[in-house]
Amino acid sequence: MEVQASMRIPLERSGSVPLYAQIGSFLRAAIISGKLPVQTRMPSARRLAGDLGISRMTVEAAYAGLEAEGLVRREMGSGTFVMALAPSPTRSSAEVPESWPQWQQDLIASCASWHDLPVLDVSSVVGEGVIPFESGTGDTRRFPLADFRSIMRSVLQREGKEALDYGETRGYAPLRRTISEILSLHGLQAGADDVLITSGSQQGLALVAQLLLRPGDSVVVERPTYAAALALFRAMGVRIVDVPVDRDGMRVDLLETALQRYHPRLIYTIPNFQNPTGACMSTGRRRSMVALAERYDVAILEDDFVGDLRYEGRAQPPLKALDRTGGVIYVSTFSKMLMPGVRVGFVHADGPVLKLLAGLKRLTDLATSSAFQRTLHRYVSIGRYEAHLRRSRRVYATRRDSMARALERYFPSGSEFDLPCGGLFIWVRLPPRYAAPELLSRAQKAGVGFASGEEFFVERSSGDRFLRLNFAAVTPEEIERGIRSLGKVIAESN
Amino acid sequence: MEVQASMRIPLERSGSVPLYAQIGSFLRAAIISGKLPVQTRMPSARRLAGDLGISRMTVEAAYAGLEAEGLVRREMGSGTFVMALAPSPTRSSAEVPESWPQWQQDLIASCASWHDLPVLDVSSVVGEGVIPFESGTGDTRRFPLADFRSIMRSVLQREGKEALDYGETRGYAPLRRTISEILSLHGLQAGADDVLITSGSQQGLALVAQLLLRPGDSVVVERPTYAAALALFRAMGVRIVDVPVDRDGMRVDLLETALQRYHPRLIYTIPNFQNPTGACMSTGRRRSMVALAERYDVAILEDDFVGDLRYEGRAQPPLKALDRTGGVIYVSTFSKMLMPGVRVGFVHADGPVLKLLAGLKRLTDLATSSAFQRTLHRYVSIGRYEAHLRRSRRVYATRRDSMARALERYFPSGSEFDLPCGGLFIWVRLPPRYAAPELLSRAQKAGVGFASGEEFFVERSSGDRFLRLNFAAVTPEEIERGIRSLGKVIAESN
User: Fold this and answer.
1) Alpha-carbon distance A43 to A58, whole Å?
2) Which residues in chain A have their CB less than 8 angstroms from residue B325's CB?
3) Which residues make Cβ contacts (< 8 Å) with residue B297, sequence separation at least 6?
4) Is the pTM of the predicted complex or chain greater than 0.90?
5) CA A14, CA A16: separation in Å to the nearest integer?
6) ∠ at Cα A204 (A286, B195), nearest 5°?
7) Strand, helix or coil at B463?
8) For residue A399, how far is the Cα from the chain centroid?
9) How far apart are CA A273 and CA A283, in angstroms?
10) CA distance linking residue B105 with residue B322, whole number of Å
11) pLDDT per residue as tens digits for the range A288-309
């Protein structure tokens, strides 16, 4: 279907709402209400601009916004098409009577692209007895709770007043110093003042996105990539340009074209044991990415969420260590290796951007809990963290191998995966006749969870045949039992 | 000075950056670099649009963005003028060499309006011995630390694993239930599922702003208002429309004109013991505001940061209690009354917006620390919080009266203030010949802090003669000594 007649969009030219936003609202409502059905080809920007007597770029800006919200898809050379709306339990339920204010109803439409991604339910209430292959963290059962608890008790006892007052926005200075020492082990020359403590690395990502991006901007991500980063970018109304990942990380040879074409403001990358693929970016590509970003004046956001968890091979330098101009913002966390509820992550950057990120943090939550920072600082500085890491590496490497063997044994022939050199995940591609999303509810009934591949793609259907399996959060016995059950569910689905 | 020649702005019409954003970047750089000096009258939108061959609304959108950043000021009927840049230590210091990437240098310019507001330094490191009249919280020295600590210890002991795991994004359910009971005492019919726990009320404000506002949108605030809310709105690039406050709160009689003229997306109000003025909005105005917001389809963000701290008179209903359509979002906190480092605030709203706020919270920091929520829940439910509140009210009322007496005695004649019925602050206006900002460093040298009025105004110079003085965080002895010193500093400044 194609829009033939010239489109009448009422524009208030003397109001304070920019024209592109007025056009965006009108078309959004038309798509949501079904007046513009799925697959409708929208008028070209040139034509709509002519009809409305406005500039073509204004229409382009409106279309870019709708694309970022997942309402239309632009295909080079063939046009702009209305997309199927993601099924949204919120929108169809009785909770949304006609009587909510219009501004609330508009919100539902404008948030359709991100607000109900299943992976983001971080509730710890997993189904009773379900083997958590879908987990995004290490094994919290192995966390030395007693140690941490007794340190925290002594922090509350000795420093209670300070620990329960507002801390410094940048973070507890001794912990920042400790983090700068950890960073130096990775080849990063950071002082305590070059570090900002955040409430988990998720806050680091959110602050960078909020500081650097505005609706209509473009951001480059890996294909596939971390689902909550995708949702974050969608929520900000930016255009997401995805560049494929292979065994050696992002295909940096394809990056330059994207930079030239989309003038992105940010490149988001997970170079070590990538989420979800487990790929580790080669040193050559790391150098090329840093050089390209410098040449095209684009910021790099380096997410090193499990860089410490290498099981074999030589460590690659962080992108930040190759950056000599202040072009890379490095984000990491303790949440994946310790109790996730500790919620302490950090950002390392050079130049004015770090101070601005701290300023934005003040505006978003003032400061991160000082009590946890003080406890973590003591825990790390008496060597407990390093010892915990060493033990975890040994245990997780064994679990990775158990999972690989179980997959060979129980998954249908034609399933493919690479053995990751570190991290938490094995990324499995099923043979063509299978579809992961359809397996999920059956797997859960059989007592097994997994992260369905579509969560990690801009174009969700590209992930149909993929499963992300966490081998670190589960015991070898659970791996054997869980992969066997999963293999059975897959075989029966055919 | 006026721009006479037609302005040449290079526009890339085939790129992905909207035209209004390109124009904004170009003019921003020209203003920051001084190529367009202070007081320059910019070309009218009509003329610039003609010069560039684009629509007038595109230029208006660019100007609105520059205005929101504090770079230009639009005066109805007379034009758009370049404003003086706020002095920015970051920009002038040696920390910003020419060699930072261009994107970092651009950031400094685009964040100039908000990034170094002094009030937002929440560091607990106050100068040794300085009397903290500038404080934004209750008296943390009166907090029953021992009680809280022993409850927290027992939470870690009995529920350590759950307390240190990711909690539910919406917040610990028993605490949400407890909060809904507290809300019912204020006439709010909220269930546990109508509450979202946040990391302090600052996060509640930030989430609402991020969900509802886009650059170029307008927001209505009170004049004066909470400095960190102003900074938050500035950081988002929205236009801030301020409506004056008198003894009975926001001048709601002036609100309708603003709604008609600016079509704002949000009204931000602090109806109880307003920050900084201490004013309490009359019930009549509360009803009118809710009715107007409904008629004009604008969301209300009600910030009830110290509603519990009433010293006399009858409680007024929260705006949320007068709202029957889901138009009001209610935000509050425990941080002002307990240890600020506890960082637990909450949002109550009806309709889809609450679920969307929870979704956005997941993307910004996943969840608030479960350990603190569990501790707070037990502390509140065994009646300790209510007892602490009762004691605090009694103590703070006495301190308010002490401060009023001290002001009468030590401040220059012609100083004006109203006695607030609750809250934390007295808002003093000095006689015409004094200027508060110039007093600040001398007062600090004399061992006294205060919050300078200009922080609370969109147009900073409007606050020149005002001081915000916290009477709750200081003892009667400190009040007597501090106000005497301050009076002396003021007298000597003349």
Assistant:
1) 14
2) 99-101
3) A101, A102, A103
4) no
5) 7
6) 150
7) helix
8) 25
9) 14
10) 47
11) 999 999 999 999 999 999 988 9
Looking from the CA of A185 toward its CB, the CA atoms found within 13 Å total 7
Please give, rounded to a whole number of angstroms, the shortest distance from the CA of A409 to a CA of chain B.
33
Are residues B234 and B240 in contact, defined by beta-carbon separation less than 8 angstroms? yes
Interface of B with A in 259-288 (CB under 8 A): 261-263, 265
Q: B residues 131-190 near A, CB within 8 Å? A: 140, 143, 145, 148-149, 152-153, 156-157, 160-169
Rg (alpha carbons) of chain B, rounded to whole number: 24
ipTM here: 0.76
Residues A385 and A147 sit within 8 Å (Cβ to Cβ): no
pLDDT for A462-476, tens place per residue? 999 999 999 999 999
The answer to whether the Cβ–Cβ distance between B299 and A101 falls below 8 Å is yes
Q: For residue A31, what pLDDT is reported?
A: 81
Q: Is A337 helix (H, G, I), strand (E, B) or coil?
A: coil
User: What are A202's two structure tokens?
Assistant: 């998720």
CA distance B494 to B476: 27
CA B176 to chain centre: 25
Average pLDDT, chain B: 87
Give the minimum alpha-carbon distance from B272 to chain A in angstroms, rounded to a whole number. 22
Q: How far is CA B385 from CA A52, B145, B194, B300, in A?
A: 60, 12, 22, 28
Q: What type of residue is B108?
A: I
How far apart are the CA of B123 and the nearest CA of chain A, in angstroms?
4
B422 pLDDT band (50/70/90 cuts)? very high
pLDDT in tens, A316-355: 899 999 998 999 999 999 877 776 777 899 999 999 899 9
**A415-427, pLDDT tens digit by residue?**
999 999 999 999 9
Angle of CA points B324, B326, B331, to nearest 5°: 110
| Spatial CA neighbour of A216 closest among B29, B356, B21 | B21
Report the alpha-carbon distance of residue A52 to residue B58 in Å, rounded.
14
Residue B224 touches chain A, beta carbons under 8 Å: no
Amino acid making up residue A463: G
CA distance B373 to chain A (A): 11
Q: CB–CB of B114 and A363 under 8 A?
A: yes
Q: Tokens at residue A218, please?
A: 């473009």
How many helices and strands in chain A, by DSSP H and E?
17, 15
Contact B58 A18 (CB under 8 A): yes
Q: What is the rounded CA–CA span in Å between residue A20 and residue A18? A: 6
Closest CA to A201 of A143, A262, A139, A137: A137
With contact defined as beta carbons under 8 Å apart, do B202 and B368 qualify?
no
Which chain B residue lies closest to A97 (C-alpha atoms)? B351
Neighbours of A460 (CB within 10 A): 17
